[in-house]
């Protein structure tokens, strides 16, 4: 029934966000907030869809952002009330005056950034992103604590105390973790710093964790931070909320043999989910069967030779015109999608209680506007 509902999209490619799954992912976070007395922010860099953020407004405490445009969008959705917490290595001096008005918290990424820009941030609560120098990720592309990291102030540089005016600390050093041991180890490392900073008001523990099975020990730790140090504690999940709630529906355009293997060309592209190419990931395909007797290469429709989703096994190789559904693409897919070769972006749907609702479609005019220059008006237009 669920698969048939996804297939009922009018045109493909289509991105479908399952709002019931988002709600399911939110429940353990809200339970943790109630038990531990912490605050939950959604990190909108994962997926900043307006209808998603509207659905979260009032249920969570605010949004985590990484740029001026994200901050504006979060502020607009929140209607000027709620938490907007910003951290970025790339703060621009020309933007700081506006950011200080629309962000409630700004975590400066380096001591240099803090010294140059913090004096202008009179209205936001000022903090520092710190690097606890603890790596829990094997792939350095994801590791904020990699050697020569650009993310955060080395905790050793703060052994003598914090700069005047710092009201909070922020760290983020895991990715997609179901184990909270890294968090416990990180808190142990920064506890001496907390003890030396009685004027701190808040601590942002970042994202990167899945909270579906949060242990009781985590509740106790969060309570202790709040009660022992008088801190407001923030969590900022992104993928934990939307990662497994997103689907990409596509249609097989062509099927042929290439050097003894079947190739299926679909009407989407890895450019609609660039992390497939960036990190050589093979997304989950609902239509595949690991025990299937047949295999086929599923490839995108652009001219890039590496526009390939992967080799999948099937009980029956799909025919031209059949739909395929990629799963678990809710985070860092649509936000990174592009129109390489001029192929359109996916239509956007929400799915709730078995009902699909079209949310966004992109016409040629949107593509043209992106590349059109007022000083270079095309001389040829198709006849009406």
From TrEMBL:
One of its GO terms (biological process) is nor-spermidine biosynthetic process. Its main location: cytoplasm. The active site is at residue 303. Its cofactor is pyridoxal 5'-phosphate. Gene3D superfamilies: Alanine racemase, Lyase, Ornithine Decarboxylase, Chain A, domain 1. Keywords: Cytoplasm, Decarboxylase, Lyase, Polyamine biosynthesis, Pyridoxal phosphate, Spermidine biosynthesis. Homodimer. It comes from Methylomonas koyamae. This is Carboxynorspermidine/carboxyspermidine decarboxylase. It catalyses: carboxynorspermidine + H(+) = norspermidine + CO2; carboxyspermidine + H(+) = spermidine + CO2.
